[in-house]
């Protein structure tokens, strides 16, 4: 199926008035991205700053615009390159990173929207703060002048059966709801980013309103 048909299939399964679709374009070229944008996608997700830097001007040159979401782990030494381009950074998981984003955004006269990445399943191999660290870090971010905390992001462990990870999504939603209720100063806690190709329907059932989908749109990635 074509990229446009794949997107149409996904649009049948999600209510795009309630759930934002981020098309994950990592490892796919500019022409695939342009196809997705022409088919109604409004937001693209990259996991590497380098790739975002390379594609951003090409998309602009083609006369298209998109929201740029940085979804992968962000090293502090890449912040200076990421902040000018990113509309939403999904992967803030340390005080050091948050402060670096704040100072870079301040110099640009920008307020950077970010999500706090949480690691509910507590897998050693993944980034993100554990549930117990989410509140202290959220409080800290809420005090930064040039960063706006907009919600949470999580990457569930891979499973052949998405049902098996429903509890991870449930728990993340609960944490999201608790933090949202606190109404921390300077935050707009409105986005819960969870769900990928294999599990997005379960994630939405459990409260996700931002899903990051690559393979189901573009096919499998060549590395
Ligand atoms: C690659 C990636 C995705 C998309 O994964 P698919 O299984 O291809 O849909 C989503 N989120 C993050 C953080 C990713 O790195």
UniProtKB/TrEMBL annotation:
Highest taxon in the source lineage: Bacteria
Gene3D superfamilies, alphabetized: Alanine racemase (3.20.20.10)
Entry function: Pyridoxal 5'-phosphate (PLP)-binding protein, which is involved in PLP homeostasis.
UniProt-recorded name of the protein: Pyridoxal phosphate homeostasis protein
UniProt keyword Coiled coil present: no
Record keywords, A-Z: Pyridoxal phosphate
Family that this chain belongs to: Belongs to the pyridoxal phosphate-binding protein YggS/PROSC family.
Matches recorded under Pfam families: Ala_racemase_N (PF01168)
Residues annotated as domain Alanine racemase N-terminal: 3-221
Residues that bear N6-(pyridoxal phosphate)lysine: 26
Keyword field contains Metal-binding: no
Cofactors, names only: pyridoxal 5'-phosphate
GO molecular function, one term: pyridoxal phosphate binding
